[in-house]
Amino acid sequence: VTASIIAITNGRNSAVVLSAFNSNITTKRENSKIKISIMLHIETNHNVAFILERSTPSNPTTWTEIGAPTGVGNRNHGIAVAPYDANDNDSTMSNICINWVDQTTTTGTYNYRLKAYGATASLNLALNRTLSDTDGANNGYERASSIVILEEVFT
């Protein structure tokens, strides 16, 4: 996943697909489980939430959110939220580890994608870099690599 800046929209209904994390797995057995592991290295506003979605072999163009909490009301919510860092919001990345176990029903290709949205308009998400991203010796601006792993677990 390359280092980039992604413009994040306001509200769940217009969440932005983080296409670098689009992935799929073709299951070998019915009723198996898919272990989803995502490590994000980001810098962004603390009001950003992440949504994990899945499409199934029988309905590959319909996306269903998985891993969301219940009883959220009007709060920002998803499978993960960005951490709060009041003292440094342009030169130090955070990492977010997302782990989820999904249940399959049939064999075939399951697609997964990650989306992000904010509570306010005009937010930027720096992926695998800092927001400032200044290059130079001893300047304290980092770069890192994010990853997604899908693993079929037989039951």
Structure in words:
The chain is mainly β. It contains no helices and eleven strands. Strands 2, 3, 5, 6, 7 and 9 form a six-stranded antiparallel beta sheet that branches. A hairpin with a 2-residue loop joins strand 5 and strand 6. The protein is globular, with a radius of gyration of 17 Å. The mean pLDDT is 92.
Can you lay out the helices and strands and say which pair or pack?
Elements: E1 4-8, E2 16-17, E3 23-27, E4 33-43, E5 48-56, E6 59-66, E7 80-81, E8 94-103, E9 108-118, E10 123-127, E11 147-153
Antiparallel strand pairs: 1-10, 2-9, 3-9, 4-8, 4-10, 4-11, 5-6, 5-7, 5-9
* Dominant shape: globular
Distance linking N and C termini:
31 Å
Count of DSSP-assigned helices: 0
How large, in whole angstroms, is the Cα Rg? 17 Å
Overall pLDDT metric: 92
What can be said about this structure in brief?
Helices cover 0% and strands 48% of the residues. It is mainly beta and 155 residues long. Strands 2, 3, 5, 6, 7 and 9 form a six-stranded antiparallel sheet that branches. Strands 1, 4, 8, 10 and 11 form a five-stranded antiparallel sheet that branches.
Main attributes of the structure:
155 residues; mainly beta; 6-stranded antiparallel β-sheet; globular
